[in-house]
Design brief:
Blueprint (H helix, E strand, L loop, with lengths): L8 E10 L15 E11 L4 H18 L6 E5 L9 H18 L4 E3 L9 E7 L5 E10 L2 H4 L4 E2 L5 E2 L2 E10 H12 L5 H7 L6
Parallel strand pairs: 3-4
Antiparallel strand pairs: 1-2, 2-9, 3-5, 5-6, 6-9, 7-8
Helix pairs in contact: 1-2
Length: 203
Amino acid sequence: MKSYRDLPLRWAELGTVYRYERSGTLHGLFRVRGFTQDDAHIFCLPTQLEDEMTRVLELVERILGRFGFTKYEIMLSTRPEKSVGSDDIWEKATQALLNSLKNKGWDYSIDEGGGAFYGPKIDIKIRDAIGRLWQCSTVQCDFNLPERFDMTYIDSDGTKQRPIMVHRALLGSIERFMGVLVRLMQSNFDITFCHWLELFLPW
């Protein structure tokens, strides 16, 4: 990126993620060692952060709503004891997340100190057929990677500045989401949904 006029930049992918989960914790499609995630990364100006967060939450609401999820639990996690980034940027980013939640009119809980070391985050959890909560969507600020990769842009005053990086996933683990959905619907899928399901799950 060269100029503040280039921002925001948004990239998205469906990528495979691997985690070494202990064998005793593996659980069907809900907890696996390899899964697909609808990952996206957004690079924006600090002044654009609130708008980008609101856009992500609107997209989450639209996509989850298409699958019939209209109630979910939302957690805003704030700065932990060990973190990177200045007090000012943490305060502004946390306020941007708060404002985006308030703009949506959503109820949320605050997890004090539960954020990642690189930035505050919003986690959205959905319930399965027996009432268990599973993390689905997430949106996170990242002050660490732009610094580690020495990412800069030229601001309107001609100075070099660092962008804020935003991580977001709408469904999170596709396999986990499908596991929740299949049990909720008790396999009563219409023909359109069955064709769509074939794209994600081998038969």
